[in-house]
Design goal:
alpha+beta, Rossmann fold, 7-stranded mixed sheet, 6 helices, 13 strands, globular
């Protein structure tokens, strides 16, 4: 009996030690300010940010209600802003290693062929035309709550011409129709960049399933697709889904800076064998894959709308 109890206690101890490796860092996220001058679904953006932080496998997020109460108590002056020292104290009181503050500085959908710019709450007339583009910019600051040092301060921009349907079903508030889907897609791209930059800043490496910059190497049939994302090179894992796309024209801001490129989704694949330097996958939707097609991770096979649909 005593031997069995010792084994059980040892197992529980090992399990407890293993949990931090799944979420190695604790982070608190203060509600972002809306500095865009337009209506912004801030709550939906925060829900998406928190969900993506948790799904990265690196962060455990402090409950927002608890954080907001502490933040209100610690907030300086009447400006609604929070400096790095205050952010550090707030996050530390909430039991977090890192504190994220930020602002939404751009949130709009526009017709690049010459139409006007609108906020995200209504559909665009003629919204099925691919020239309609959504732009979202997040200014983010990450503070180490122990030292008060700013470990990351930067701007992440996202642009969306296509609609990732799964985002609208998971996060409300982005509006309906194509413009709402594009705004959700642009927001998701900006958030993904924020998390990638944060992971790099704290030395966490690539997120599990991250495949940015990876491609299709070969496609010889439905169950014989080779991609250059592996367990060592792209944190690929068996069962992970990826959307396969081709890039179109570059998306530029008003100053001519390239924000992104149009993505035309042609297929969805799922990894069936992950190797260190590459992976084998099968096609679960679409087809017509070519060598050099880009890939990006998705959670479910229906999270992306294929171009021919």
């Amino acid at each position: 009996m005593k031997k069995s109890l010792k084994i059980l206690l040892a197992f529980c101890a090992a399990l407890c030690l293993a949990v931090p490796s799944l979420a190695a860092y604790t982070i608190s996220v203060e509600t972002f300010r809306n500095s865009s001058g337009r209506h912004v679904p801030v709550d939906s953006i925060m829900d998406m940010m928190i969900t993506e932080l948790v799904n990265s496998g690196t962060f455990q997020v402090v409950e927002r209600d608890r954080l907001d109460v502490i933040a209100r108590e610690q907030r300086m002056g009447q400006s609604g802003l929070i400096d790095s020292n205050t952010a550090s104290r707030t996050g530390r009181l909430a039991g977090a290693q890192y504190m994220m503050t930020g602002a939404v500085t751009k949130y709009s959908a526009s017709d690049t062929a010459g139409g006007g710019i609108i906020g995200g709450g209504s559909s665009l007339i003629g919204g099925l035309i691919n020239t309609n583009t959504a732009y979202v910019t997040l200014d983010v600051r990450i503070v180490d709550t122990t030292t008060g040092a700013i470990v990351y301060a930067g701007r992440a921009e996202g642009a969306g011409t296509n609609v990732l349907g799964g985002l609208l079903s998971r996060y409300g508030g982005f509006g309906t129709g194509r413009s709402g889907g594009q705004l959700a897609t642009a927001t998701h791209k900006a958030i993904t960049k924020v998390i990638a930059n944060l992971r790099a800043a704290i030395g966490a490496g690539a997120a599990p399933g991250s495949a940015e910059g990876f491609h299709v190497l070969e496609a010889k049939g439905v169950r014989n697709v080779t991609i250059d994302a592996g367990t060592a090179t792209g944190s690929a894992r068996k069962g992970q889904y990826y959307a396969v796309y081709r890039e179109g024209e570059a998306i530029r801001d008003l100053h001519g800076n390239v924000l992104d490129a149009e993505h035309y989704y042609v297929a969805v694949i799922q990894i069936i064998d992950a190797r260190p330097q590459y992976s084998k996958a099968k096609i679960v939707r679409g087809g017509g894959l070519r060598r050099g097609d880009g890939i990006e991770p998705i959670r479910k096979p229906d999270d992306v709308k294929l171009d021919y649909e």
